[in-house]
Amino acid sequence: MTREGVQAVGSAPYVEQTTGQSKRNIDLILQVAYEHKLHADFHLDYNLDPSTEPLIWYLLEQLHQRKESEEWHDGAHICVGHATRLSLFSPEEWDRFSAMVEGDKLPITLVGLPPSDMYMMGRGLPGQPRATLNVPRLAKEYGLRVGMAVNNVENAFTPQGVLDPLALCPLGVAVFQDGTKRGCHALIVSHTLRVVQVP
User: Fold this and answer.
1) 192 Cβ partners below 8 Å, 6+ apart?
2) Starting at the edge strand that comes first in sequence, how are the strands of the sheet with 146-148 ordered?
3) pLDDT digit string (tens) for 94-147?
4) 188-195 long-range CB contacts below 8 Å, 24 or more apart?
């Protein structure tokens, strides 16, 4: 983290054995990001289990508290990848999410990873449901910073697929059933998200 050029620190709290450990994981990464003036990246809420607590709420609360106590650097951003549990959110939960992010000006971007998400999700559940964040809908209906990307190609999470992120756009049109100009724009713009150096 102290090496020249390092801009972000990340973790996957969903792999922890308990919710308490996942929350401590989030706390640790937020603290490290603050101390080293880094962006933070979380692979979070990677499940389709409606009985699990969505840890995105904990992350938003911690970030809000850090901003209030000036323990977060201006310009530092948080990326939350996968977040498939959020695909189960009701409109009311998305309204709450949007209100928290916009109201508190929380620097959060959601990034769905469709090739991994749809391959990995739903195992052991009836009907083996598949899910990933609906990028066009979340951008259109809630004005959220949201994108999609490809990761882990040719490993256990994504044993098939291509590395070219623009190849996701036709898949997105099919998965999200949105071939409108606005929908395609959301899918393409999602690939222009970039990390900038924290001041």
Assistant:
1) none
2) 8-11, 39-44, 78-82, 108-112, 146-148
3) 999 999 999 999 999 999 988 889 888 888 888 777 889 998 899 889 999 988
4) 189/147, 190/111, 190/135, 190/146, 190/147, 190/148, 190/149, 191/147, 191/148, 191/149, 191/165, 191/166, 193/109, 193/111, 193/145, 193/147, 195/7, 195/8, 195/39, 195/77, 195/79
Which amino acid belongs to residue 4? Answer: E
